[in-house]
Each structure stands twice: as structure tokens, then as C-alpha cells.
Amino acid sequence: MIVSKLLPDDPSLVPEKERARAKMAVHVQARKQVGVASHLGIKLAEYDQRIRTFIPDYEEMLEVAAAAVPRRARTLVDLGTGTGALTARCLLRAPRARSVGIDADPEILKLAERRLGSRARLQCGSFTRTSLPACDAVVASFALHHIRARSAKIQLYCRIRAALRRGGVFISVDCHPAANRALGRQQREAWKSHLLSTYTPREATALLSAWAREDTYVPLEAELELWRKSGLRAEVLWRKGAFAVLLGLR
Question: Rounded CA gap, 244 and 186, in Å?
Fold first, then answer.
């Protein structure tokens, strides 16, 4: 079932100045929000196939993320759930769990509903503003780079920590390039090399340039520090090139 109601925000756990900056960042994000198909320049029905041509090692990263979900988990929250690819793997890992999927794109949630069926409750709204239920795991796959301000990320991470039950986990799959510029360029070329297996050099360059304008890729060490500032114990589960799977323990 897809729920369209946007729930009120949880109380913030960060200082007032940080809350103000985060709130402004959320408003900016909401104004700029577009559907997944528009963001990627594809037809929505092609998403599951095309994402693999965009992101190297996509399947492996999702498998690593799902394997970190506790088997005893009963409630799972997926931020930016998309078509439900990560959630589906997590539900196989935790057979007694049900999921809450949050995504701002109502059309892609229809695809998730077909995939996940009765084990998922899907909410249409921004995960930066939608209340998070008490849960055993929060997961995200290529969703958090849509948050531009680091203060807004900290606010979200504090809310995630507050929602997690004792022993709960936060798992994110995303792009976190090196802070070193030379190494960052090497990682970008490796990403481009993956794109070139499907697209022309001109198309590959255009894709990377468009994503660089629209997305915010926080370097790995800086991202880990944001998690730690929110009170999470952060670990790197998997890393290859610019991409990483991160684990946060409550």
C-alpha cells in the first residue's frame, strides 16, 4: 500500500543553528526534487536494467548491504526506496521483517509495490521530513547524495539513530570519492570506464557531468565523521573506487 500523507518531523537532536541550516537545505531540496526517471534521463520501466549500466558493482553492493541486516529484524525502513531492489534483498535476509519504504516519486513506488507486495508499506514523501518509525534497520541505496547540506545530513542521521532499536543498524550504499583530488580523478575515470561499456565517450562524459551538478558526493572520511557526530558507530563494510557500503551501529 502506498501512503501519500507526509508525516510531521521528529524532534531534532542537533543545535538550533544547525537545525535552521538543515531546514533551509530541506526546503531547497524540496523545490529541486524531480522524479527518478527525469533525474537519470531514462524511462522509469528501464530503471532496474539501466542502473546497472550506470553504477559499477551495483549487485555486489546491494548484496553486501542486505547481508548486514540482522536476521531477527522485524521492521526495516528504506530511505529513497526506488523500485525496492535493496528492500527485497533485505526481506530475504530477515524473513520475519516488514518494511516501510519512503520515496518522493509516486511513480517509482508503484514499481516497488509490485515487487514487495504485502510485506511493505510505502510512503510518498521526502525522507528528510517524513517521520521514521521505531525499527531494527534503516537502509539507503544511492539516495543520500541528494541531500546537499551536511547539516541536513547530520539532522537526518540523528533521527535515524533515534528511530533504531537497541542493536539496530543503519546501512548506506552510495558514492563517496576520495578527498585527495588526484585519487578522486582516478576514481572518476574508473567510473567512466564502466559507463563506456554501454555508452559512447560523449554520453559517458555528459552523464557524469549531469550527476556532478545535481548530486552531492561527500568524501568517505567526511561522511563517516557525520555519522559519528550523530552518535552512530560507523564502519566501512565494502569499498571499491568511489563507491562504498557503510554500516552504522546504534
Answer: 16
CATH classification at residue 35: 3.40.50.150
Q: Which residues contact 200 (CB under 8 A, 6 or more apart)?
A: none
Residue 213 lies in a domain: yes
CA dist., res. 13 & res. 120, Å (int):
28
Query: What confidence score (pLDDT) does residue 44 get?
Result: 75
Burial class (CB within 10 angstroms; exposed 0-12, middle 13-18, buried 19+) of 42: middle
What backbone phi and psi angles, to 5 degrees, belong to 56? -70, 145
Give the torsion sign (CA, 197, 203, 207, 212): positive
Calculate mean pLDDT across residues 132-150: 97
Number of domains in the chain: 1
Q: Which residue has the higher pLDDT, 42 or 158?
A: 158
Q: Which comes out higher in pLDDT, residue 150 or 20?
A: 150
Q: Mean of the per-residue pLDDT values for the chain?
A: 88
Residue 190 lies inside a defined structural domain of this protein: no
Q: Is residue 107 part of a domain?
A: yes
Given a cut of 80, whether residue 112 has pLDDT beyond it is: yes
Burial 61-82 (b: 16+ CB within 10 A, else e): bbebbbebbbeebebbbbbbbb
- Rounded CA gap, 20 and 15, in Å? 9
Q: How are beta strands 164-175 and 135-141 bridged, if at all?
A: parallel
Instruction: Decide which of 18 and 140 is more confident.
Output: 140
The cell numbers describing 188, all together, are 572518476
In a domain, 204, yes or no: no
Domain assignment of residue 56, given as a range: 2-179+209-249
